[in-house]
Write a structure and sequence with these properties.
Length: about 150
């Protein structure tokens, strides 16, 4: 299971790098697309903090400067990679207790949280590509199957 999540984490990083590069080459970036990408960066950090029992240090709708996106993405990737490296098989079935942004307590399996992170990212990446279509000369290919072919 650990290798599976390492692969999904690498896929998510690959898609976000492509998205950043495409947005930087676009004529314009609509504010909603910027907000969604900032949200992706922030929520990865928020969830990582929840999984390791640390306090939330960014808002889920944090306003980052787009010139810092790649650096923030790299930091998130390093934090998540280090987190996964420390895990053993039993950890994936461990329940994590956390509070959402409204202060409501929940418990979720660590494996479900990791899956949520990837699905959540893909959901918003799709929204961003949709918003950006008029500004792209060619929209980025963020498909998992493309990732697997390029990885070989």
């Amino acid at each position: 299971m650990k290798d599976y999540f390492f692969n999904l984490l690498a896929f998510d990083y690959w898609t976000n790098v492509r998205l950043i590069q495409s947005m930087q080459c676009a004529e314009e970036i609509p504010q909603r697309a910027k907000d969604l990408f900032n949200h992706l960066l922030a929520t990865t950090r928020v969830w990582r903090n929840r999984m390791v029992g640390e306090m939330q240090d960014v808002d889920v709708w944090e306003k980052f400067d787009e010139k810092d996106w790649q650096q923030l993405l790299d930091q998130n990737n390093q934090l998540m990679t280090a987190f996964l490296e420390q895990m053993d098989a039993a950890d994936f079935q461990r329940k994590i207790r956390y509070y959402n942004t409204k202060g409501i307590a929940y418990e979720s399996l660590l494996s479900d949280i990791l899956t949520h992170l990837i699905v959540h990212s893909a959901y918003h990446q799709g929204q961003i590509v949709s918003l950006m279509k008029p500004f792209f000369s060619t929209p980025p290919d963020l498909m998992y199957i493309t990732y697997t072919r390029e990885k070989q």
